[in-house]
Amino acid sequence: MHLAAKALIGTAAVGVAGLAYARWEAQAYILRRETLPVLPEGQSDLRILHLSDLHFVPGQRSKQEWVRSLRDLRPDAVVVTGDFLSHQDAVPHVLDTLDPLFELPGAFVLGSNDYYAPRPINWARYLKGPSQLEPKRPMLPWGDLVDGLTTNGWLDLGNARATMKADGREIDIRGVDDPHISRDRYDVVAGPFDSDADLRLGITHAPYLRVLDGMAGDGADLILAGHTHGGQLCVPGVGALVTNCDLPRSQAKGVSTHDGSMLHVSAGLGTSPYAPVRFACRPEATLLTLTPTS
Predict the structure, then answer these.
(1) Which of these ranges, 128-132, 164-168, 192-196, has the smallest mean pLDDT?
(2) Among 58, 60, 71, 81, which Cα is nearest to 31's?
(3) pLDDT class for 15, splitting at 50, 70, 90?
(4) Which is more confidently placed, 8 or 150?
(5) Residue 231, Cα to own-chain centre: how many angstroms?
(6) At what angle do helices 91-98 and 61-69 cross, to 10 degrees?
(7) Domain containing 18: what range?
C-alpha cells in the first residue's frame, strides 16, 4: 500500500474516532461546583443550582434522569438561563424532568431556541461572529413552557424583576429576555439593586456585554448566563474558539468578574440536535455555593 493511501486511511480513522468521542462526550454529564464569596458578612452559605441550555428533544432519557437526580443535592434555589427546548414536542418532557426541582424556589429566562425550532447549521459561520436567526424558522410552543414553569411556582424574569425568597433570605433578582435575538429590554428593569437584599442577582440567557454592563453598573453581586455552550468544540490547552456573542473567549464558561460583579457562565447540558457533539467541553450543571464576602 502506498504511503499516501496509508496516511489517508490513518487520517480517516482519527476523524471517525474523534467524532465518536465527541458524540459520547455530549452525553457525559458532569456536576461542577463553585464557591463564590458574594453574601453579606455573617450569613450562612446559600446554594444555587444553575442549569442552562438543556435543548430537550423527546427520548433523551439519560439526560432526563441525570437532571432529575440533581434534587438529591438539596440546593436552596434553582436558576435556569434559557434554551430549554429543541423540539416542537419537548415541553412535557422538560416539565417532567424538572418536576423534582419545582418544590424549590426557582427563576428562569428563555433563550432563542425556546422560541424558534432548530435547523441544520454551518459551523464555519460561528467563526465569523455571533449567529443570526433565520426569520422563517418555525415557532416553538414557548408560551406553554412559560405557563408550565410559572404554574409550578418559578419566576419568569424575561425583562422583569422580583424578590425571590430562598432559605429565609431575600434575593433581589432581575432578568432580560434573550439578547441574542434582541428581545432584551434592560431599560424596563434598570435601576439600583436593593441595598438591603441578602443577594442581588441578575440573569440572562446570552451574556452580551450591554446586559452585563447594565446589571453590574446597577450593583449586581452575581450574574448568571448560558448560551455559549462553553465553546462546545474546544481545543485542549486553548479553550473556546467562539462564544457566539461579544463576550471574550476567556469567559466562555465558569466564573469570572465583570465590572465588579461576579459572573458565572454555564457551558450547559445540551446541543442542537443537528450538532450533537462536544469536544473538551463536557455538558454540565453547576452547584454554586455562595459564601460571605469576609
Answers:
(1) 128-132
(2) 71
(3) very low
(4) 150
(5) 12
(6) 30
(7) 3-292
CA–CA distance, 246 with 225 (Å, rounded to integer): 13
Q: 49: which residues sit within 8 A by CB, 6+ positions away?
A: 70, 73, 75, 77, 78, 79, 101, 104, 285, 286, 287, 288
Tell me, what CATH number does 40's domain have?
A: 3.60.21.10
- CB neighbours of 124 closer than 8 A, spacing ≥ 6? none
pLDDT digits (tens, 9 = 90+) for 235-245: 998 999 999 99
- Among the listed residues 10, 36, 20, 11, the one whose alpha carbon sits nearest the alpha carbon of residue 254: 36
Indicate the DSSP class of residue 67.
H
- How many CA atoms, within 13 angstroms, populate the side-chain half-sphere of residue 254? 10
Residues 6+ apart with CB under 8 A from 15: none
Q: Indicate the DSSP class of residue 233.
A: B
CB neighbour class for 126 (10 Å; exposed up to 12, middle 13-18, buried from 19): middle
Q: Which of 101, 84, 102, 82 is nearest to 93 (CA)?
A: 84
* Residue found under cell 490513518: 10
Give the total number of structural domains in the chain: 1
